[in-house]
Amino acid sequence: MSYITGVGLLPYGKHEGSSTIDLMSRAAELALADAGLKRGDIDGFLCGYSTTMPHIMLATVFAEHFGITPSYAHAIQVGGATGMAMAMLAHQLVEGGVAKHVLVVGGENRLTGQSRDASIQALAQVGHPTYEVPLGPTIPAYYGLVANRYMHEYGVTQEDLAEFAVLMRQHALTHPGAQFHDPITVADVMASKTIATPLKLLDCCPVSDGGAAFVVSYEPTSSTKIRVRGAAQAHTHQHITAAPALSELGAEIAIARAKKATGIEISDVRYAAVYDSFTITLAMLLEDLGLAGRGEAAAQVRAGYFSQHGVMPLNTHGGLLSYGHCGVGGAMAHLVETHLQMTGRAENRQVRDASVALLHGDGGVLSSHVSMFLERVS
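User: That's the sequence. What structure does it adopt?
Assistant: Structure tokens below.
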């Protein structure tokens, strides 16, 4: 048993002059203050990787800088699933008695700390070195391939994908820390320039500076108790040329394992936080997780099902698509927002009921998946 006792989140966008360590430190300070803990209380530490600071021992570099001496520490790399994988590991460390308070941090100055070309080059290296990288594709190109296949099999249109971008922007308008605050329409998405057919510019998450952190503890540190009910992973492939059929991707496996481990069903969930690097990512994951039928997620978006006051509020901070994406910290913002919703502190974004939440992270090109359930207990 473990509890998420504190969270911290920076605004995403530009943080001129701030390094990866600066952003991680500021987020960590917020999380510790939120949990009512001091640096000396932290005996476990996890952090994600940073493309702008690719140190081989980033966890201990941060620990030294931040002034903590944990008995357990290391950095993790599972692409976009890193944040949720760290949450799962922190839960297991606490549940296993290895640590009492695990600080989890992610962040980097991805927007101001490297050039556009350097960012593109870094992301291009995820492809297979023999069969993919020589052909020049980047992450959007890989997801474009997936999108084309998905649209062909399930009758999804570009306008359908645009609905997810519009929803995430609607939610971002209510969060002061979001990178984007200009409303958009389906027409705006369709008119934005093509990045990798069928994906347009507004179908893709931005590059951001930012940081996020949370603390996982062996017991609550406040009267509001948010318990990690359980989590599960699935890793079906690394490279798109080795990916299984669309109907056999890891999200379905991870959520099935998480449901079996926790006894929670999708019908029990009241709030969802789902990885959304691209509109196609969000569309596919919602359907793979059982939050919508095949090819039906866009229609549910149009009907208001996933809006703040809908049946299943989703990514009420604006998600990666509009709150921003600073690498590992990008998806961690989903967990921070979930915690704020579950503790009734989401202010004008507050949903009706967030007593049981489903979180899902995706790394690579739908390669690595982590599903987690949180619940509020009395």
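The first strand starts at residue 2 and ends at 9.
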